[in-house]
Amino acid sequence: MATDTKLSYSFSAGNLSASLSSNAAVSGAVVAPGTNGSINWTTASINIAKIEFSATKAGTPVSLESKNLYLVNALKPDSLSGTVSLIAGVYEHNQFNLIMSSSLTNPPLLLTGTYIEASGTKIPVRFEMNQTQSIKLEAARVEVASGTYLAKVAIQLNALVTGLTASDFGQTTRTDTNNTIIISSTVNKALYDKLIARFTSTMSVNFSKQ
Prior knowledge:
Radius of gyration: 19 Å
Number of helices: 2
Largest sheet: 9 strands, mixed
Helix content: under 10%
Strand content: over 45%
Order of helices and strands: EEEEEEEEEEEHEHE
Number of strands: 13
């Protein structure tokens, strides 16, 4: 059938600086960049092998996909990547399945930044998600008229450390001459597992007409 609507994907990361306290109930609060007792992310890249969009339209299943979406700078506001064609109408049970996997040169997710201890000491951090992840996001009923729409995926990075404590970062193996905290499936795995468990909670999606 002829299509009359374009759906593009937008990615935007926010809340880059979050508190890291000895009190888990306080960690994850958004703070000013450079605050003592905080984690501050400064670069982010995301490698998405495929986005599967599924919904129902007038009771009929709809399934579309976009492949090979790589965001070299996911901190750039509303980074656009990928477009699919739709038919105007009412879409229900909207689901987005993001399959993040490694390519030959890029991991699914790479974050770099700085952990600032309560004393003010700054320690480089590199979080490399080097395992395939499948993340399912849902959106409410959407009535789509002909035109251009945006599915905006928001990533709130402060949620990565919600419920953690400063000791989760403080009691880590350090590498290189600058004591970098590398977090991966093979280095500082206990912290890696905690961040991976929280990653899905950092993401949400909503539709808007452009």
